[in-house]
## 1
Amino acid sequence: MPTYKSKTMLAVDVLRERIVAGEISPGERFDVRKIAAEMEMSITPIREALRILQADGLVSYDEHRSISAMKLQPDDAEELYRLRAVVEGLATELAIQHLDDDGRQAIVAAHEDMKQAAAAGDVDRATLANRRWHFAVYGAGRTKFVEPVIERLWARYLWSTIYSIPGRLQASVSEHQEITDAIVAGQAKQAARLMRTHILAGLKSLDSHRREVERSEAKPRRARKADPRS
């Protein structure tokens, strides 16, 4: 039988996708009335949706009752990546135990799409293909609890930002190739190890980039003083 979603859950899905896709930036405030008008809903289901997203860690309420998209702090990012490495490594190993031809083809196709997008410099397309590849892997495991946990972890981070780091997209494609090869070969332990390494490589790139930006911003601006002898 078909399943139907309430207006609240429809709003949750739309707002979550907008946050994850970067259409709503971290720290950006929500105009509840405007959102309600755009979705052709009353204010009530929008407010309920925002409360659900707050419980998921995607939305924050300040002391003035202002509602905004959650900002991810550096320490939060590290914890998130490390947790992802564990859970997604497990999901990869479980996937190979249940992988069929359709699942294998979906993984390979998503990887090829990402590779082509990266070669063309199309970051938006590569970002979508990256998500499709990851969840083609995790979906193959047919898990009841693991994949929903991963969905919640992914929803907390603006993944498109990682590819603004020079070289990270190309490195990610190369890492995906190794993982895909191991999956196709049925090497469960190897694929799981490579997935964990891949995710932690993203964390390393993020940390390195942040330190570089901080060093750049911290450099003292030396005012050029006129030589009194001139």
Note: The chain has nine helices and two strands.
## 2
Amino acid sequence: MDVAPNDIRPIEGKKLADWAVLTDGTRVRIDFVGADGALNRVVLPFDMLGSLLMTLPRMLQAALDTRFSDGSLRFVQQLGGWHVERAEARGSLILRLSTRDGFEVAFVLNSRDADALGTALMAAPNLEPSDVRRPN
């Protein structure tokens, strides 16, 4: 682990232990086991949790790019399901993508983006196993 400045004590996490939404729904508690075996707890406000969600994919990709300098690896998940629903905003859709283990993310699509996505999916080639560069 990289050394932090002297006034910051890093806590190296080993595994996620538990999490919970706190009573009013404005904060989330995350418990993890540290490398020393001690249980650590972090409480984050909802807005910060959203910022973390948006940052984590970039962090994962940056770590892969550092480990594998050719840039060919991507952190991906197997699609478990998808759902399209109308958004309250006129002419918009909500596209939800999920994995089998419960990860879910949702995107709002305006009609132009929905049309472009549909066109791209229709034009996507059928990939044969030999077309895959690396297993993930």
Note: Residues 13-67 form one domain.
